[in-house]
Amino acid sequence: MYFTDRYMMNRYNPIYKNYQTNLIRVFFRSSSNHSYEVTCNQNEKVLKLIERYKNESGDYMAQKFLYNAKYLNPHLTLAEAGISNGSYISVSNTGEIKGGGDISSMTFTDLSQNKTKEIGFSPYAPSYRRVTRGINIFGICHCKYCKAYEEEVIVNIYNREFDLIKERDSLFCPECQSPIIPKTVGFYLCRYQISGKKVENNRIEKFMNPIDEATNSNSVKYFDPDSNGEVMMIDLKIEVLDYL
Length: 244
Fold this sequence. Notes:
Elements: E1 2-3, H1 14-21, E2 23-29, E3 35-41, H2 46-57, E4 64-67, E5 70-71, E6 88-92, E7 106-109, E8 116-120, E9 130-131, E10 134-141, E11 152-157, E12 161-163, H3 164-167, E13 180-188, E14 190-200, E15 203-208, E16 212-214, E17 219-223, H4 225-228, E18 230-243
Parallel strand pairs: 2-6
Antiparallel strand pairs: 1-9, 2-3, 4-5, 4-6, 7-18, 8-17, 10-11, 10-13, 12-18, 13-17, 14-15, 14-16, 14-18
């Protein structure tokens, strides 16, 4: 096992302080009239707010989000959408995606873009950033009592196949064992293939990436969220064909 040297937000740096100064409280009201509070940054995308609501409430079937009687655009920031401290968002579990009915979904890096980069190893990276041969899921820990709070952690997957939508509840922070919010995936010394279904322009699109390899023993092959963007996934299967 190795460590990666990807930059991680530290609560003492200016980026973290700027993040903290823009925090607001947003409330979600479900169709069963339950209310949930989510703390977020006003400069975050609506997509991230929805993801955080789903992970904190466990309401993964939620499909429709309305604010001021209008559907929220997931690609706007909260400020652009007019969401401020104390705003209420209505939630419905009825999907209106063409080609499908009620579905389970989650926000994840758009792996269909198939843009990867190499992240080198460092002996100084923390223990919650170990990678193993095969599949490695990158995510964020939101446990306030964890050393990795609001940091990117890596969950090692020891199976050859991983169904992210069905098995996301099995992803826990390696430091504190709290559930994480998965963001993307990386591969180390293996041949792999990715397939799934995503929601784009209110339609379901299938994709299957070509078989690829992670051959560099000094780095992990990583699907960068900034390069690929994020999308709503309703099916995502990750498979290791061979270990190298």
